[in-house]
Amino acid sequence: MIIISIFGGLGNQMFQYACGKALASKLGVELKLDISFLADKSLRENFTVRDFELDIFNITEKTANLTEVRDFVPNLWSCNNIDLLKYKILRLIKANHYYFEKQKFLFEPKIEQVKKNSYVYGYFQTEKYFQNVKSELIQAFTLKNKPDEQNKKLICQMGTENAVSIHIRRGDYHNSPFKLLEMNYYQQAINLITEKVLNPKFYIFSNDYNWASENFAALNIDKTILTHNKADRSYMDMILMSHCKHNICANSSFSWWGAWLNQNSSKIVITPKQWFKNEEYTESTYDLIPEDWLKI
Predict the structure, then answer these.
(1) Which of 24, 33, 76, 105 fits 288 for a cystine, CB–CB 3.0-4.6 Å?
(2) Residue 237: helix, strand or coil by DSSP?
(3) What is the DSSP letter of 269?
(4) 64-91 pLDDT, tens per residue?
(5) Residues 23-45: pLDDT tens digits?
(6) Non-local CB neighbours of 120 within 8 Å, separated by 6+ positions
(7) pLDDT, tens digit, for every residue of 90-133?
(8) What are the residues whose beta carbons fall under 8 Å from the beta carbon of 232, sequence distance 6 or more?
(9) Coil, helix or strand for 49?
(10) Segment among 118-132, 138-152, 169-183, 198-212 with least mean pLDDT
(11) What average pLDDT does range 174-181 have in this prediction?
């Protein structure tokens, strides 16, 4: 068995699941999902409470029960000194059955050394962890329930056009390490698409509709700003992105997955080269962006 820790938003949860799926497939063992971190809704400083979101997909793996999880890790948010001591002893005993990612975004070859009956924790934000099970993941990340009529019509419409998704992530990025992408990035990406794609139709997705409306209003392009998938339906934006023929991504795992799930064999995917405000972090995202995507 492999137990993979699931945490963060939908995009992060998909990366973690994908890595766990690849490991379990390679080892020929069962994969279980540790969602105990998501289930703990206690308030913590500088922490956003998230829900388990993978249940929208056709994922058949079971969640690990607390007994299975606690065989590896205690509840680190509420444990006392005795529990921490037990945990440290347990870590020594099971040292070869833990894998904790050391660097986000960069592929760590040591993942290949993971053994059966291990606990795995990390972000695993590069397809290098799971490219070998891509077909299985494409199937797993299909919706369990059919889209509603409005989204179903959009999917059909996108299939008849040279549909291009544009994802804008702002809002929560104002107070985060992530760079706020401005119009110069989107204008360059749109220019590149219009040079290569005949009659593109741009579909704009954003968590800041006002900014998107104000900044894209003057652009002389065929465009639609989509605003109907909110709250517990926001995942449908990712699904719609995946049905576009080409993708302009934000520095976000959400649009990364929308582009990765796009099955157009001749797709053009554009992504920002710099994801973080601190330019020194740019090299750390080298493995995050697939080789055939365009970086600007």
Answers:
(1) 105
(2) helix
(3) E
(4) 998 888 777 765 444 555 555 555 555 5
(5) 999 999 999 999 988 987 665 55
(6) 2, 3, 4, 5, 19, 20, 23, 98, 99, 114
(7) 555 555 688 989 887 899 999 999 999 999 999 999 999 999 99
(8) none
(9) coil
(10) 169-183
(11) 89
Q: Tell how strand 118-121 and strand 200-206 pair up.
A: unpaired
28 torsion bin: left (phi>0), alpha (psi -120 to 50), beta (else):
left
Cβ contact 145:238 at 8 Å: no
> Cα(21)–Cα(42) distance, rounded to whole angstroms?
29
Distances, alpha carbon 136 to alpha carbons 4, 97, 248, 267, in Å: 17, 25, 25, 20
Q: How high is the pLDDT of residue 280? A: 76
Distances (CA, A) of 104 to 12, 169, 206, 247, 264: 11, 20, 25, 24, 28
Domain 146-295 part of CATH 3.30.1330.50: no
Alpha carbon distance 90, 71 (integer Å): 8
Token output for 37: 């971190």
Each residue of 261-292: pLDDT tens digit? Answer: 999 999 999 999 999 988 877 777 889 999 99
CA distances from residue 100 to 95, 140, 154, 194, 208 in whole angstroms, order as listed:
11, 25, 41, 43, 34
Gap between the Cα atoms of 9 and 203, Å rounded: 23
Q: And the tokens for 58?
A: 């056709």
Domain spans in the chain, listed from the N-terminal domain onward = 2-137, 146-295
CA quadruple 257, 41, 63, 285: dihedral sign: positive
Residue 24 in tokens: 């379990």
Q: Residue 203: helix, strand or coil by DSSP?
A: strand
Which residue, 204, 213, 294, is CA-closest to 240?
A: 204
Q: Pick from 72, 8, 71: which is nearest to 35 by CA?
A: 8
Instruction: State how far the Cα of 250 lies from the Cα of 255, in Å rounded to an integer.
Output: 6
Radius of gyration in angstroms for the set of CA atoms belonging to the chain, rounded to a whole number:
20
pLDDT at site 40: 76
What the block records as the tokens of 102 is 């050391």
